Amino acid sequence: MEAKDGSFGFDFEGEYTQVTPHKLIEYTFGDRIGLVEFSEGPAGVTVTVTFDSEDSHSEEAQRSGWQAILDNFARHVSARKD
Length: 82
What we know:
Elements lengths: L14 E6 L3 E6 L2 E10 L2 E8 L7 H23 L1
Antiparallel strand pairs: 1-2, 2-3, 3-4
């Protein structure tokens, strides 16, 4: 993964452990677990990401990073549906 401006980057590697189309993506990365859930509602699909935090960055920094990824994903999806 890399910052848009190229100022920093890091390798991100994991393994999908469960995929249920249109519902769930579960994965491990290192000794941590991540979960992406998709739930349909009246306003569209809500994407919820749950993950094991790590010790080298604050919980808020990690939450902000994952939220930025979700925001980019939302912009990408919105642009494609028009």
